[in-house]
């Protein structure tokens, strides 16, 4: 039965009449859903009867068939309660996927009932305002700019093997690597046990077993059914060994996995990622397992990253495809001038990109030293062009294969599974365009450009900032102290507020990502406003209650009559932290209350500072209470 299902309708494969016949043939596909992506990365999912789609198909592409309430999704300040109508035109330029409900079988066909998910745009007052449109329009603008640039500068350093005037098209390629934690329902593993297993490197690429193995293998097959061309599924660094019950089934599962699939055109790649998350969740759920894509589901152990690979190539008039990052001689140069310019643009302007990469409390929790998650704006190229290497401590690394120039690309390591990939890729590619323009126009050769990228902090350059360093082949966590890292590579934001404020703090960099008027001020304001609402709401409604539970759980355990002085000393330290965090007095309000008051007053500078203080005090409390508890006999 599964082999008879229709999983994907490839872009451009069918004309209107052929499409109608195909869908009539697969009458088990009973619904259509137009998939729009709001500014937080949320996707819409409505159920429209198939007969309506077949009857009014043209209206679906014109945007007149389906509207949604824009005030109920994250289009903050754009679609308001008194102006909420948003049209949803379908997008025929990408693949369409069929989402099957395996719990609902069409009796006539004996097949699960399907919903055809058609990617769409969101149009408000005649303007496209959604994440998919931002990426599509950004790529169109960048393509036009690059083709014009190569016509003006047909000979570029490191690309001596091509003539820029012969470039017919620019192809943007992207790919994401999806990490996730999987566990049996209500399983709660001890952080200490997980941390020890990670430190001892017991989990990475271990053999999967039982229901986890079954779910992983089924997921890989299913992703291939959808045309994603899975390249690998494997265990990641996090997890503990499961146990086996009397029936021979695995219980107490708690482990981390990763699945990678083939790169695609940037817009299609972002759509593929959304479909992959759906497939992973549904397949693992069918096997009795819970999945989370949160960036840091368990504080103190490895989080979930989503390393994002970016590159672009030129399609020549001859039909040949040329990777514009790869140099003419792969053993003499790391990259071409275009590759260097792209990387330098990304690094120089990252403060304006980071808000779109790291927009939540959860995302910032992951970006801590010691967990292979980047905190510094720095790159690594490798020690020599002849022998590629990988530095896993940096923000954006060069990935290359001397024998395969088409593989040359960058890996941006800061993203997580809930990063809005559409908007993040837009900001990344727009910043890369800025660097390419500057480097190509400079006329400098690849050795001079490499020297600029490799310069020491305090050395002036023709593009990069004087007071910063941008390249390191060291372990940036082990080989630099925190103050030195901050001085060389910039101090990373500690809160969502600090990250969003960088769009104001670095206006020149923000102007770079506003090029082409796609990430225009209206969109930036809406994105920031939505992020700050989620940030402050989560602080009040989730984080403070969770921390209050930690405070309340830190109870006195010693007997007043038999307690030794050290017990009293340790408890006094614990209790003073409890009071400071959660107990109001006439003389002093607690940190929790002060956070509430600052949010109510709209004083986000104070909220941000108190959040940092609160996190520090809670960690102190955990350590102090564990020490006190260990000493109680």
Automatic annotation (TrEMBL):
Domain GS catalytic: 154-554
EC number: 6.3.1.2
Pfam families with a match to the protein in the record: Gln-synt_C
Regions that span the bilayer: none
Leader sequence residues: none
PROSITE patterns assigned: GS_CATALYTIC
Main enzyme class: ligase
Origin superkingdom: Bacteria
PANTHER family documented for this protein: GLUTAMINE SYNTHETASE (PTHR43407), LENGSIN (PTHR43407:SF1)
Similarity-based family: Belongs to the glutamine synthetase family.
Name under which the protein is recorded: glutamine synthetase
